Amino acid sequence: MIKTLRQSLERLLSRGTLRSLREVSSPQGREIFLEGQKVLNFSSNDYLGLASDVRVVEAAVEVLRRRGFGAGASRLISGSMDEHLLLEREIAAFKGTEAALLFPSGYMANGGIIPALCGREDVVISDRLNHASLTDGILLSRAEHLRYAHANVGALEGVLQRTGSFRRRLIVTDTVFSMDGDIAPLSDIVELAKRYRAWVMVDEAHAFGILGPSGGGLVDLLGLNDSVEVQMGTLSKAAGGSGAYCAGKRELIDHLINAARSFIYTTSMPPAIAGGLREALRIIQAEPERREILARHAGRLRQGLRDMGFNTMASVTPIIPVMIGGTPETVAFSARLLSEGIFAQAIRPPTVPEGTARLRLTVTAAHRDEDIEQCLTAFRKVRPCP
Predict the structure, then answer these.
(1) Is the model's pLDDT at 104 over the cut of 70?
(2) What does pTM read for this prediction?
(3) 8 Å CB contact between 331 and 346
(4) Are residues 186 and 86 in the same domain?
(5) Which residues are catalytic?
(6) Tally of CB atoms within 10 A around 338
């Protein structure tokens, strides 16, 4: 076995796609200590700067003292604690749905929701650039899996026209695409779903807390709450914690409680995490200025990079891809930025398609104006001469 694994690792190394872990020895924030080096962090999904917010930390500590360290069991045994139920009610109220259900992670949510809704007689239609957790959830469901060209409504309709023989049709899409930073054409998707009698499931992982008048996500921004049957999102990004939710009709949530294997057969979220998330949710709603600061920082960094001639694709969110070249060039550029005190992670296949390696920059509300300028200065310094 070891010989086989070693050969596999050597192949990854030869292609420049071998991954390893880096130690962070500080709280998450605009600055972190990475492998002992103090750097500006442009690789975090902590969009609103809540992961280390003292109010969130204190709320989690308070619940830790009252309810202990772990939940001790699955939700269907003795692990459904008051903090879980309170958080679910508050998420449902925030999202404007009848109910919500917590999952330990976004990956587990997508891996449980889709197989609970679809099986061998059904078809799931997916954007080609959807997150891997959606793809794996579809594979677990054993439903027919059809993909359409990224954000291409015409291509989606072409696929829908071929699916009349299936029992159920489910369209799944990210609302904000995690590697490109662009947004799904959700209004058009909903219209097609109505025309072809399909259900719609969205993954709001990178939109929750960011988009919409109150941070409810793209569904909130577009006023489509009554038209999207399954609303999934994560609590590990803008909310600063961990875990995920599914929000929708009461019948949907009751069905998932009884059919989603990744919910049924796992220990529930630690109660202190739920307690911290409740405070994070309060801050998301009470402090819209965090979203305004975030949008300003993202706009300044994106425009500054474009002014230098960098390709940032169709990004309109705090996720800013920067196309450098091939995998070796992208990794080398990331290393040069790190030597200037800027942590901008190189993203390589298979996370992104072959030939599309990029730097993935993310900004947060915790960044300062001078941080954005320092990042742009580093790009000017390390970019190749024309």
Answers:
(1) yes
(2) 0.95
(3) yes
(4) yes
(5) 178, 206, 237
(6) 18
Q: Running DSSP on this structure, what letter comes out for residue 34?
A: E
Structure tokens at 344: 């901008």
Q: Any alpha helices (H) in the chain, and if so which ranges?
A: 2-15, 54-67, 82-95, 106-117, 132-141, 153-160, 186-195, 218-222, 250-259, 261-264, 271-286, 289-307, 327-339, 369-382
Residue span of the structural domain in which 169 resides? 54-286
pLDDT at 118: 98
Domain boundary among 271, 286, 301: 286
373 plus 346 within the same structural domain: yes
pLDDT digits (tens, 9 = 90+) for 172-212: 999 999 999 999 999 999 999 999 999 999 999 999 999 99
- Does residue 249 share a domain with residue 172? yes
Residue 299 — very low, low, confident or very high, per pLDDT cuts 50/70/90?
A: very high
- pLDDT tens, 111-120? 999 999 999 9
Radius of gyration of the chain (CA): 21
Enumerate long-range contacts of 54-62, CB under 8 Å, 24 or more apart: 55/279, 55/283, 56/240, 56/241, 56/276, 56/279, 56/280, 56/283, 57/276, 58/279, 59/275, 59/276, 59/278, 59/279, 60/272, 60/273, 60/275, 60/276, 60/279, 61/272, 62/275
